[in-house]
Amino acid sequence: MLEGKLVKLVEYKKEYLEKAREMINDWEVKKYLTPGIPFPLRIEDEEKWYSSLNPFGNGTYSFAILLKDTNEYIGGCGVNTVDWKNSVAEIGIFLGSQYHNKGYGTDAMEVLIRFIFKEMNINKIRLHTYSFNKRGIRVYEKVGFKTEGVLRKEIFREGQYHDIVVMGLLREEWQEK
């Protein structure tokens, strides 16, 4: 278990799947998650994803985010891909909309970053977000990420084209912070 000030990151349990599906299907969460068609997930989709989890080395590590004081499930985060040769990990995070703007995302990101740099021995963490995800960009910048590039008009959401913002954090920048 990895702990922050407000949250802890733990292994996923089957009991979290229904709440995770409900959160992900909430438009205020879903619109920030995938560039494809934002079609609702079925419980079978979540169960298939859960069955694919493998903590023994395929380069993906998914954590459930729980409130530290109550153990309430509030979202998920993790390492989506790892380029071991170049020491680069790509990450993602989501929180249920009722948990936004309370510091939980920032705390979860700090815990995840610490895990990646201290336990995985990674040199760089990368993420992609959408230009309309102002709250997420503020969190990423707060924990040290810098914008590395912009993929112009790369995503079509809510009737308009938007940019994808590529952000990165180097181990040396994190250590200086």
UniProtKB/TrEMBL annotation:
<dbReference type="GO" id="GO:0016747">
    <property type="term" value="F:acyltransferase activity, transferring groups other than amino-acyl groups"/>
</dbReference>
<keyword id="KW-0808">Transferase</keyword>
<dbReference type="Pfam" id="PF13302">
    <property type="entry name" value="Acetyltransf_3"/>
</dbReference>
<dbReference type="InterPro" id="IPR000182">
    <property type="entry name" value="GNAT_dom"/>
</dbReference>
<feature type="domain" description="N-acetyltransferase">
    <location>
        <begin position="7"/>
        <end position="172"/>
    </location>
</feature>
<protein>
    <submittedName>
        <fullName>Protein N-acetyltransferase, RimJ/RimL family</fullName>
    </submittedName>
</protein>
<dbReference type="InterPro" id="IPR016181">
    <property type="entry name" value="Acyl_CoA_acyltransferase"/>
</dbReference>
